[in-house]
Specification:
The chain is mainly α. Helices cover about 35% and strands about 5% of the residues.
Length: about 325
């Protein structure tokens, strides 16, 4: 009877959860209850926030990367990211690099930052799904309450801006110059080849259709290929190889790329190589002539005597 007894953990009186906690010594992430027990965030948003906080600095957390990692759809993950942004657990900013490429900087907060913008708009089909299944959750009940009963206070509408009052200017003072309105830069003119060459146009059209093999986003319509073919033919006319044209059109593409045809038209116009100068044409060589006296060959524009024979005569 002196053997050690292992006492089983006491059962929860209401049949709730039982915790068996083991102390972590490595590979763990500390997450606050304000996130794990958040009353407004969806379960997908809470889990996504925990996953992002567990990643090392510099890890990729774009929507495409998360869709490949988790079984949820792109729409659900995008909505969860918007929730985290609205409640201050995430911040995404777009920056333009010196090379012109636009990237997204993502900052994760383990405490809600002060720049939260408030609760996001609810997905319209959540309440419909709850009504169809007959299991209205606490979230749908909370959404059905009037706005005055929600826990988040409504922000007061901004005060109207004061109407500026024009102040009289003394006659002796200088006149105030108004800044001119910015003038939009004219669109670059698409290059056109100097001589129509059907073979050159066929090569240019095939090059445009093959761009999708180098970059999947460069899928062009028939109208786009037809309008861009003369510009590509101009590059080929100026001794640009098809490989160099493909490299110029597919390198450092912006993400996301919404208008591939406009980007290609811009690059074909602004990066157009200079025309190749005409090759120097050497004058034809002076023909050989046979001397009338000694019958030796010499160069001269017309038949006659060679230099030695002319000297001997003189």
């Amino acid at each position: 009877m002196d053997s050690q007894q292992i006492i089983a953990p006491s059962r929860a009186p209401s049949g709730g959860v039982l915790h068996v906690n083991v102390r972590h010594t490595s590979h763990f992430t500390v997450i606050g209850n304000h996130l794990a027990q958040h009353h407004e965030l969806s379960l997908i948003a809470i889990g996504l926030a925990a996953h992002i906080q567990s990643l090392p600095a510099g890890a990729k957390v774009g929507i495409k990367v998360l869709v490949e990692r988790f079984p949820e759809s792109e729409a659900r993950i995008a909505a969860a990211l918007r929730e985290l942004e609205a409640y201050g657990y995430l911040k995404r900013t777009r920056e333009r690099l010196p090379c012109g490429r636009v990237i997204t900087r993502t900052t994760s907060y383990n405490q809600p930052c002060a720049q939260a913008v408030g609760p996001p708009a609810r997905h319209p089909d959540r309440a419909d799904r709850a009504d169809r299944t007959g299991r209205a959750s606490t979230r749908s009940t909370r959404l059905a309450r009037p706005a005055a009963a929600t826990a988040i206070p409504a922000t007061a509408p901004p005060a109207p801006a004061p109407v500026p009052v024009a102040t009289p200017v003394a006659a002796s003072g200088p006149a105030t110059a108004t800044a001119p309105a910015p003038v939009a830069a004219p669109a670059p003119v698409r290059p056109q080849p100097q001589t129509p060459d059907p073979d050159l146009h066929r090569t240019a059209s095939a090059l445009l259709l093959e761009l999708r093999r180098e970059a999947a986003v460069l899928v062009l319509s028939e109208n786009d290929v037809r309008s861009l073919t003369p510009a590509v033919a101009t590059w080929l006319e100026r001794d640009a190889t098809p490989a160099s044209v493909t490299r110029a059109l597919t390198t450092d593409l912006p993400v996301p790329l919404k208008y591939p045809a406009k980007l290609l038209a811009h690059r074909l116009s602004t990066l157009l190589p200079a025309p190749v100068p005409a090759a120097f044409v050497a004058p034809p060589p002076v023909p050989f002539q046979n001397c009338d006296d000694c019958d030796r060959a010499f160069r001269a524009p017309e038949p006659g005597r060679c230099g030695e024979c002319r000297t001997a005569v003189l």
